[in-house]
Amino acid sequence: MNKKKSSILIAGGGSTYTPSLVMMLIEDRERFPVRKIKFYDNDEQRQAVIAKACAIILAERAPEIEFDYSTDPKEAFTDVDIVMAQLRVGKYAMREQDEKIPFKHNVVGQETCGPGGLAYGLRSIGPVLELVDYMEKYSPDAWLLNYSNPAAVVAEATRRFRPNSKIINICDMPVCLEDIMARVIGLRDRKDFETSYFGLNHFGWWTSIKDHDGNDLLPKISTHVKKYGYTEQTQQGQHKETSWLETMLAAKELHEIEPTFLSNTYLKYYLMADETVAHADKQYTRANEIIDGREKIVFEECQRIINNQTAKDTLFVSNEHASFITDLACALTFNTKERMILIVENNGAISNFNHDAMVELPCIVGKDGYEVLSIGEIPTFQKGLMEQQIASEKLAVDAWGQKSYQKLWQAFIMNKTIPSAKVAKEILDEMLEVNAPYWPELH
Ligand code: NAD
């Protein structure tokens, strides 16, 4: 029997992650055959550079795959099976603001955590809902797999405002960390084991890691993390910047706080906020690292390919980010029943946590979507932290929906990274000014 061939739309075609994703779709096309790849972006020039290079890569390596790109929603979203979304609303210039404004007030400045994450959330909600609407209008049977951050806030918004849509919100951080864990104990990658995990996005814990014979590997990984955190194993993956290495080292301190489980290293921003602020270079943040690093490298490489009219020697390779979303597309298309960590409505899976919270949990994925695995009760420490964080995220979505300054201020106050209502207001008022083109008008 002929295998189904999918038509893929990458929304945010100008993303720095797009070339790796295209490399993955080419590499994996026997398992997940593709008939068409299209890009969609609202920045024509930025997308064109990535698209012209990808057209050359595809012509050389997979000429049977049709390729096109557009800034027109109808053209882009028509005849699509899977939308892979990776928007950055406001691009790196706004990420820089998300990081630098909080730092001025001695508060964590980060892409998805703390006030920066909430500000980014208010920028992302509208454009992601817009993608859902385009997909439903032009390709109503398609699935939208969303990487656009901040995934927690975006997921709460899609749960609330598009409850029946075929959208799955995802994050590559659990799989990136699982690949690092695999390397720590000398395994090839995460596919050598099966994990149990619970939490919110960028806010969770692994409770078990078992090999395919059922042997528990968590104690061995835990012994390593207790001593070293994650060190050199980090840089073999996609997170190479200096600040990432610091984040991965924090696993050691996080292990002292919770030795039973393995913590998502993003918890550092909440549980070690003072140290994070003290050690941060507040003038040169991760946004600057990426502008001068990944973004520059990706666009220079695309330009080199375009100038040479060949990609035979390209440095673009697939990565964890690309492999996870491709696995998900494959599971939905071919009913593989793969176990994957997704951001989903709790609905009792964590029995002592809000039913209507968007949590990050293992799921079984098949052609009708996902089934969430039941976790049961979680301990008081994690539950308390998660309740505070989910309240902050929900208040941010309330603020967007109701155009409410008060709700957004409360979202900031509720966030564990912010010490007081006064500091919350100062940060919010500065953020309000620079976010005016993107946020709804708050009153
Ligand atoms: P990027 O700035 O390189 O690319 C984002 C693209 O989105 C840009 O080309 C931009 O023009 C486009 N865009 C912005 N607003 C748009 C809109 N309204 N409509 C159409 N296109 C729009 O960013 P990047 O670093 O490649 O990251 C892309 C996204 O993926 C970010 O949200 C990032 O946080 C997210 N990401 C998520 C994960 C995860 O695991 N959840 C991991 C990595 C990256």
Structure description:
By secondary structure, the chain is an alpha/beta fold. The protein has 18 helices and 12 strands. The chain has helices at residues 18-27, 44-61, 73-77, 91-104, 114-138, 151-161, 173-184, 218-228, 242-249, 251-257, 268-271, 273-279, 286-292, 294-308, 320-334, 380-402, 405-414, 421-435, and strands spanning 6-11, 34-40, 66-70, 82-85, 143-146, 167-169, 193-200, 203-211, 262-263, 338-345, 358-366, 369-372. A 6-stranded parallel beta sheet has the order 3-2-1-4-5-6, with helices on both faces. A 3-stranded antiparallel beta sheet has the order 7-8-9. Strands 10-11-12 form a 3-stranded antiparallel beta sheet. The mean pLDDT is 96. The chain binds nicotinamide-adenine-dinucleotide. Nicotinamide-adenine-dinucleotide binds at residues 12, 14-17, 41-43, 46-47, 86-89, 91-92, 127, 147-149, 151, 171-173, 321.
Quick structural summary:
The chain has 18 helices and 12 strands. Helix content is 49%, strand content 16%. The chain is globular, with a radius of gyration of 21 Å.
Q: What is the overall shape?
A: globular
Strand content: 15-25%
> Which residue ranges are poorly predicted, with pLDDT under 50 across at least 5 consecutive positions?
none
User: What's the count of strands?
Assistant: 12
Biggest sheet architecture:
6 strands, parallel
Number of helices: 18
> What is the quaternary state of this protein?
single chain
Strand order of the largest sheet: 3-2-1-4-5-6
How far apart lie the N and C ends? Answer: 59 Å
